[in-house]
Specification:
It contains 5 helices and 9 strands, in the order E-H-E-H-E-H-E-E-H-E-H-E-E-E. It is an alpha/beta fold and 193 residues long. The longest helix is centred in the middle third of the chain and has 11 residues.
Length: 193
């Protein structure tokens, strides 16, 4: 299999939304990895941009990860050292037939609900019940009627890891939202200085 594959090249619902591209600083990904055990999991990063999360997973931590990016220029940057598809995560593609045990991303915020729903549907298709979905998003996304259904018991919603430090100078408060497939207890909140 090559390191670069073109899938669904026609414009989709998120064709290059430049205003929604916020590269994830390495420290933000490391905060997640210090609190959620993703070691040994095949991970998909479905909005990988230029590979900021992939680089931390693969280069810094030695975790196997693949990515998807709708912008071809960004995907070409991310493909070294990772396997990256150019395509729309919300559409069909070869990634939909694989057994991902974790999906970790900083999604386009306007498609947050769709990314969470798609990720929960794809993680652990093989029947295991220990997969993770981890989304970096504005902390305020904990509220809102459209998103409330994502955080109910029975969805696997496990924790919010709130970042006291802002990943971008102009950013709102950000958090990692974590679902653990099969988890049925109350969600935890941790604030990381």
């Amino acid at each position: 299999m090559s390191d670069f594959q073109l899938v669904n090249p026609t414009p989709g619902p998120r064709q290059d939304p430049a205003e929604e591209y916020f590269p994830t600083p390495p420290w933000a990904t490391k905060v997640l990895l210090e609190r959620v055990n993703l070691w040994g999991f095949p991970i998909l990063e479905p909005a990988c941009g230029e590979g900021d999360i992939l680089n931390v997973l693969r280069r810094d931590c030695g975790i196997g990860a693949c990515g998807i990016e709708c912008n071809a220029t960004r995907a070409r940057v991310a493909m070294n050292p990772a396997m990256v598809w150019i395509g729309d995560f919300l559409a069909s593609g070869p990634w939909a037939d694989m057994n991902w045990l974790a999906i970790v991303t900083n999604p386009p915020f306007s498609l947050y609900v769709e990314f969470v729903q798609r990720s929960l549907a794809l993680v652990n298709q093989g029947g295991r019940v220990d997969g993770y979905v981890c989304m970096l998003a504005p902390t305020e996304y904990l509220g809102g009627l459209e998103r409330a259904q994502l955080y109910q018991r029975g969805t696997g919603f496990q924790k919010v890891i709130s970042l006291a430090r802002r990943p971008w100078a102009h950013a709102k408060a950000m958090s990692w939202f974590v679902w653990h497939k099969g988890y049925g207890g109350p969600a935890e909140i941790e604030v990381v200085p």
